[in-house]
Amino acid sequence: MYTWIWRHLPGPFPAKAFGALVLVLAVSALLLFVVFPQVEPLLPFTEVTVTP
Amino acid sequence: MSSAVDLDEPPAVSPGGDRPPRRRDWGRTFIRGIGQTLITLGLVALLFVGYELRVTDFLSDRQQDQLSEQIQEQWADTPTVAPAVPAPSQPAPPFTPAPISVGVGDPFAVLHIPRLGTDWSRVVVEGAAQDQLAQGPGHYIGTAMPGEQGNLALAGHRVGRGSPFLDLDQMRPGDPIVVETADAWFVYRVLGDPATGDFATDPSGIPGQQIVRPEAVSVIAPTPGGAADGPASGAYLTLTTCHPKYSAQQRLIIHARLDGAAISKATAPDGPPALAG
């Protein structure tokens, strides 16, 4: 997968490296601000209330 | 078909019709794919831990700032009752704070706990669902309001989301928990013997601190430990959070009782003496 992405990034090495960095940051931001907040309530780690 | 699974191999390099290397490459690609997937999952899990411990703090702090602004504006709009100038012959009428009605998700009070830090304060919102707790300590709907007979029950996160109740296990008997509302201050004190540090000395039998299972709803009953629809035997305050840290297996509970009457903000704009420590 990563080799495939690397091969499809355009330009010479510096441009590829920059593109890869942008991709990593984009995926991290998507996870942090969209995916995790939605997944979190389904997980039991953050329960602090008493419920029957 | 074979070209679809062979994407990891540069097209220019793969020689057409060379069967045996192609089969070997397919297996290698497959194994490598699994390896990369596992590494990716590991990194995502690490990122999630970082999110829980750090990013939620950041998001929560911002929401607390907004709530703080919102509640200060609300309180500025509702004029505090100026103390009536008592006639010389009559004693001053006792101060009665205005009743509080609040919608779910709205801020209505500020919690101050000197033991957790001299400037420690959090805006409390109505409701104890995940949505509200993401913003700050939440008030269990249906439990008493500040100063009322019954049990003012608040829940808050221990780790993450600003970690409001991280050090709740540091609370000692007699420690003040000050609740600030639009027009009044209420001082609650953790139950137990301040001299010996024993939480279990209160004549009512209610301990100042206990660790219970998550289903123990009796801790937020009108009389803590009593029936959910039982009578209130005093004005209590109960804090709940998870226990131990980084886990949600049990609940850490702090019980406190109202100490003295409500203090009007008009007479004590900077808070009661208990707030100073």
What would you say this structure looks like, in words?
Chain A has 52 residues and is mainly α. Chain A contains 2 helices and no strands. Chain A is rod-shaped and about 60 Å long. Chain B has a single domain, classed as Sortase (Sortase, Chain: A). Chain B has 3 helices and 10 strands; from the N terminus they run ααββαββββββββ. Chain B has helices at 2-5, 19-77, 130-133, and strands at 107-112, 121-126, 138-139, 150-155, 176-180, 184-190, 209-212, 235-243, 250-258, 263-264. An 8-stranded mixed barrel of chain B has the order 1-2-3-4-8-9-6-5. In chain B, a hairpin with an 8-residue loop joins strand 1 and strand 2 (121-126). The longest helix of chain B is centred in the first third of the chain and has 59 residues, at 19-77. Classes of the chains: A mainly alpha (52), B alpha+beta (277). At the A-B interface, helix 1 and helix 2 of A face helix 2 and strand 8 of B.
For the record, give the distance between the C-alpha atoms at the N and C termini of chain A, rounded to a whole number: 46 Å
- The CATH topology annotation of chain B reads as Sortase, Chain: A
Q: How do the SSEs of chain B run, as a string of H and E?
A: HHEEHEEEEEEEE
Q: What's the Cα radius of gyration of chain B?
A: 27 Å
Mean pLDDT of chain B equals 85
Chain pair with largest interface? A-B, 20 and 38 residues
Query: By helix and strand content of chain B, what is the structural category?
Result: alpha+beta
Q: Specify the CATH homologous superfamily of chain B.
A: Sortase
Shape of chain B: globular
Order of adjacent strands in the largest pleated sheet of chain B = 1-2-3-4-8-9-6-5
The proportion of residues in beta strands of chain B is 15-25%
Sheet of most strands of chain A: none
Q: Please trace the helix and strand order of chain A, writing H or E for each element.
A: HH
Structural class of chain A: mainly alpha
Quaternary organisation of the protein chains:
heterodimer
Q: Whole-number radius of gyration of chain A?
A: 18 Å
Can you count the helices of chain A?
Answer: 2
The first-to-last residue Cα distance of chain B is: 74 Å
Could you give the count of β-strands of chain B? 10
Number of DSSP helical runs of chain B: 3
Number of strands of chain A: 0
